[in-house]
Amino acid sequence: MVLGSLAVVQIVAASCSTGWQVVSSADNSFAWTEPLPGLRAASWTGSVQLLENYDSGCYVTGIHLDFTGPVSGGTFVLAGNLFVSATIQYPSAFSDYGAVATNAYGALGAWSPTDSHVQPHYGINARGADEFFVQDGLAATIAGVTASFSLPLDLLGQTVYAQMHVGTNLHNQVNSFYLSGSAPPPPPPPPPPPPPPPNAPPSSDFSWDPSTGDTNTAFTFTATVSDDQDPASSIQVRWDWNGDGTWDTSWSTTHTAQHTFGSPADYTVVLEAIDSGGLTTTASHVVSVASAQPLTQSWDVYIHAHEDDWQLWQSPMTYYDYQNGDNLLFITATAGDGGQGASRWQAREAGQEASVRALAGPGLAEASSSVSICYTAVGQVCHNIWRYTYGDRTTSFFMRLPDGNLNGSGFALTGFHSLPKLRDGQDLTLTALDNSATYVSWADFYLTLQAIVSTYAPYDSTTWLNAPEFDRAMATGGPNSDCPSCPGHADHLAVADAVYQITVGLNAPWGRAFFIDYPMGWNDTRYPANLDATMYAIKKNFFMVYSDTIKAMTGFDEYLNGWTVQFWENSFHREYVRVI
């Protein structure tokens, strides 16, 4: 190994000019020839320059070490298969190429030429140092060679080494450079922030829905709170339902609560809110509660997975229930999005609402809003669900959970989450597509179903729950069908299991009816056509109103392209239900 000259030539005086200045320069030219046997040779004609960037206060704000030449760069002459490595080393140069990365510093920012003879090697050690590499297999003259390394300011006041190394361990050329100057001082610390304002009590108020009711009404109370220092979500509230000074609920950050008053009266409901500093405020309003009117109408609840299911599988019974004067409650568990996004499920919801209007007749008042549905487990659990009412005898709830696909695997757009996976424990939570509610367990879902029904319908045998068939054999295509051994839709079966749980499983007094679905569309011989022309027309009309609404909104024709026309027509001719 031959250690090159360490002499440097000072270029600038002690005073500084702003901008990049050449501080020192060294001629690092060398020539090396292998004695024997290969007669390889390498020579370099060039220099190394230290440049520093000065600001107006003569502080150094940047450092470069550049391998270069007198005009356009240095020149390599290489013979034989060998390479030359150029690096910056601190605190010492290396003698064995295997240690090239140990003390290497500097980021290679620019180099020339840009051909196959030269190349950068980035990140050769943990601090991200770079290497400039020149290589040739036979013989080459490489002119105009430059390589610029930037160095960190914390090396100021230290001596670094610009090193060229030939081959594995053939020749060393090392030049030392003292990095003079100092970095700018750090900026002064920012002034301390002003002290926080003194704590003030939170503000609070509340509303309730419905605005009036009777002793059968489940009122939903919603607190509105704010505070100068705490986020609204952290403010705790509690309720006194009759203004007697005794708090009827514990402190909670849940700002909605539900209450049914046991007797007719004007009740002064009081809300108290408390912030993290312990300051409180109260708000009160009078809620008028009338005597409950005798229930003269029955409720029929139709629960299914998608927006077209009750039209296909549970009608025309829906039509005759309504004609008999019953109240109808529709609950649709999933958004039916098919992994296609909001425009799909919003059109399907509009289609279902159009079917309800066709069932009840034109010209009735309609409204929609998000309502809070609550049940009591360890504590009170509430979820916001979208409700649509048409007239005074139909109510529809859209829970908007992700469509689970035919086999329950879900879709990529919704993260492959599904109701069947929630039931089976593969999903620990399930969030509605509009982010209105998150269900943290299978029980959370089916108890919410139970709470929707309980909020509207009597808890007795006058209420009927209608759901898809839960029996897997009955819901699977029979051997004599268009689709032998084909299982029912996984979402249908999950909804069936949930309804079974809140009726048979919880020994509820409600009537229970379970409807066959897909096997009817598959022309299963176990379920032959059983509807007359009038019933066929009623069922088909409900579905076509749904299909035409989607076509008007999206251009997609459900009847012609959503499945097969024969599948729909087979379903229009059939309705099969068993009562448990």
Structural account:
With 580 residues, this protein is of the alpha+beta class. It has eleven helices and 32 strands. Strands 1, 2, 3, 4, 5, 6, 7, 10 and 13 form a nine-stranded antiparallel sheet that branches. An eight-stranded mixed sheet has the order 25-26-27-24-23-30-31-32, with helices on both faces. Strands 8, 9, 11, 12, 14 and 15 form a six-stranded antiparallel sheet that branches. Strand 26 and strand 27 (394-401) form a beta hairpin. It is elongated, with a radius of gyration of 40 Å.
Global outline: elongated
Helix/strand structural class: alpha+beta
Helix content: 10-25%
Number of helices: 11
The span between the termini is 96 Å
Mean pLDDT: 92
Number of strands: 32
Largest β sheet strand count, sense and barrel closure:
9 strands, antiparallel
What is Rg?
A: 40 Å
Low-confidence runs: 1-14
**Strand coverage percent:** 35-45%
What topology emerges from the helices and strands here?
Elements lengths: L8 E2 L8 E9 L2 E4 L7 E5 L1 E8 L5 E9 L5 E6 L2 E8 L14 E2 L1 E6 L5 E4 L9 E6 L2 E13 L7 E8 L4 E8 L24 E7 L3 E2 L4 E8 L9 E5 L15 E4 L5 E10 L5 E11 L8 E6 L4 H6 L2 H7 L3 E8 L7 H19 L5 E11 L3 E11 L3 E8 L17 H6 L5 E2 L6 E2 L2 H15 L6 E6 L3 H4 L14 H16 L5 E5 L2 H4 L11 H22 L3 H5 L2 H8 L4 E3 L1
Helix pairs in contact: 3-9, 5-7
Short synopsis of the structure:
With 580 residues, the protein is α+β, with helices and mostly antiparallel strands. Strand 14 and strand 15 (171-178) form a beta hairpin. The longest helix has 22 residues, at 533-554.
